[in-house]
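Weekly structure sync, notes
Attendees: PL (lead), two postdocs, one rotation student
Agenda item 3: pending single-chain targets
PL asked that the sequence for the first pending target be pasted directly into the notes so everyone works from the same version. It is reproduced below exactly as submitted, 349 residues in total.
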Amino acid sequence: MAEWIDIRSMNMEELTDALVEVGEKKFRAKQIYGWVHQKLVRSPEEMKNVPKSCLDKLLKDHPFYGVNEVERHVSKIDGTMKFLFSLHDGNIVESVLMKYKHGNSVCISSQAGCRMGCRFCASTLLGLSRNLYPSEMLDQIYAIQKATGERVSHIVVMGTGEPFDNFEALCRMIEMISAPEGLNIGHRNITVSTCGIVPKIYEFADRNPQITLAISLHAPNDEMRRNLMPIANRYSMEELMKAARYYVDQTRRRITFEYSLVKGVNDRKEDAAQLTELVRGLNCHINLIPVNPIKERDFVQSDQNNVTAFKHMLERQHIQVTVRREMGRDISAACGQLRKGYKERGGNG
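Predicted structure, written out during the meeting:
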């Protein structure tokens, strides 16, 4: 029995079994799967060559879950698009379309809310409502591609939620989005970000060897990280870095460390020196992120001089480092900001 029974979450084998159970022919599975995962239909009624009687029998026990657009905001600065989507139960999630020279990248949410409690993140302020189904992760991508008429080439699972807190649904989404029967987006074009659930890093290394893994680090030592990220009280820096090295060794892929720079907290010379020692000898890339200020926290973004000095200190030690380009700041494109604002205005979710 499949863990998810909605049509968009089922793989081809599960969909075939479901059709046989209601007395329909196996070949209908390929038809329906193509409509859903290649033609990206927004409703069952759009499946023109599938009899209504067949769909009615299937939909009785297998709902057509996905997302519905509630709001869309377009940045006047760089064209970044931020989408608010509603789910079938009224929950709200958000996704971002970012346009680069190399293609269109969509950042999707993996949960409605988040329970990780990272102090610099707006996503966690409202707590966790629930995990998303694979269909609801997939349909953020499908809805954006359908709405814009432009192919999505890269996926970043770095929106609201902790992907490894919804591990099986995440893996099912990756399986389906990368399949030839779907959008066929290669593993190397998919990035998954985690705050550092150590056991799942090992499991993910074994199950998805070509996915780019990004770890939210944000501190060069245990004490500082525990103050910023509750997950650090469960897994030490030593345990986290051991898992990161396993990932690199197992997959032969470079790992990314996300490091949000907070003025006077983790952006000093001594912090850069500690960070250098922490990652020495590891095939990694450090992505420096000037922190997004949120009104519930007193964190202040590092000034440009500190960001540049921090970057140069790492580069002098031959560490690959970039400063994340800020996109969509005029539309609250950082994780959780738009969803939280929507709820404060009286919306559900």
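Discussion points:
- The CA atoms of residues 113 and 235 lie 22 Å apart.
- The longest helix spans residues 134-148.
Action: rotation student to compare against the earlier draft before next sync.
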